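Q: I'm building a small set of examples for a reading group on sequence design. Run inverse folding on the following structure and report the sequence directly after it, with nothing in between.
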């Protein structure tokens, strides 16, 4: 089943009078099926974050539209958009974005408390998720009291607790050491498989990308290529390196 249909999305920055205009996305179109784990790669400045922010309704496209679960999101008003974002989108950022004045538990359940869920529903979801993600024993700690990897797992729990239709991750392993990075990728794969979550993950890292089922390569605001994983992980890895070397920049 198709969960996302992106149609001719463009983004122009600098619409104010006198400021220089820059076209960060140029008529991007693609489709995502439910349960897919998709990587987004491309050189720095190619438009990856711009695309993710638009799909997460953090930002608006200049032209074009996208349809999520049959609904044209670009037609929603401000209130509908806010509700849509809390309910349907889980965002995982490179620098976790946890609130420092709240415990991990309070951070994780925030989307549910904001939406007025019942306490027992919240507790149930919190317990099963944090058990799966291995942070159930540190829920009363504050972000500064736990490691980067643990913070990112808490951020992943926060992104997942609403059972969002779409998880958007912008370089989620970018601030982690290789071990924690690998753990997070295993976790996203687990979430993808057992919760059938649909994931779009921006990454510069070929190793991280090799966890995906498909990669969208972006160059200068356009889709340059799509690569499917197939059965041979080594071949997929090599193909990603080949395309990245043509695109240039940012290979780790
Ligand atoms: N708010 C903004 N105003 C003006 N230009 C912007 C703004 N945000 C991004 N840009 C420009 O749009 C282009 C795309 O930026 P974007 O952040 O989407 O790139 P990216 O692919 O995520 O890069 P990176 O890999 O470095 O994170 C860049 O040239 C950037 O300078
Ligand atoms: Mg970016």
């Amino acid at each position: 089943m198709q969960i996302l249909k992106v149609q001719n999305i463009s983004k122009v920055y600098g619409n104010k009078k006198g400021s220089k205009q820059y076209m960060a996305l140029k008529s991007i179109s693609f489709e995502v099926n439910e349960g897919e784990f998709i990587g987004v790669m491309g050189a720095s400045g190619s438009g990856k974050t711009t695309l993710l922010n638009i799909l997460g309704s953090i930002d608006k496209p200049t032209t074009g539209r996208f349809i999520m679960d049959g609904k044209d999101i670009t037609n929603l008003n401000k209130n509908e958009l806010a509700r849509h974002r809390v309910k349907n989108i889980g965002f995982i950022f490179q620098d976790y974005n946890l609130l420092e004045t709240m415990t991990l538990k309070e951070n994780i359940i925030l989307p549910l408390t904001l939406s007025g869920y019942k306490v027992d529903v919240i507790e149930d979801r919190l317990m099963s998720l944090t058990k799966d993600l291995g942070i159930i024993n540190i829920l009363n700690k504050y972000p500064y009291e736990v490691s980067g990897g643990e913070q990112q797992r808490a951020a992943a729990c926060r992104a997942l607790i609403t059972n969002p239709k779409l998880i958007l991750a912008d370089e989620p392993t970018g601030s982690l050491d290789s071990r924690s990075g690998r753990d997070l990728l295993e976790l996203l794969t687990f979430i993808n498989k057992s919760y059938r979550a649909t994931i779009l993950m921006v990454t510069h890292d070929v190793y991280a990308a090799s966890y995906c089922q498909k990669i969208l390569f972006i160059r200068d605001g356009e889709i340059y290529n799509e690569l499917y994983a197939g059965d041979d992980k080594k071949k997929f890895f090599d193909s990603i390196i080949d395309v990245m070397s043509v695109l240039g920049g940012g290979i780790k």
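The first helix runs from residue 48 to 55.
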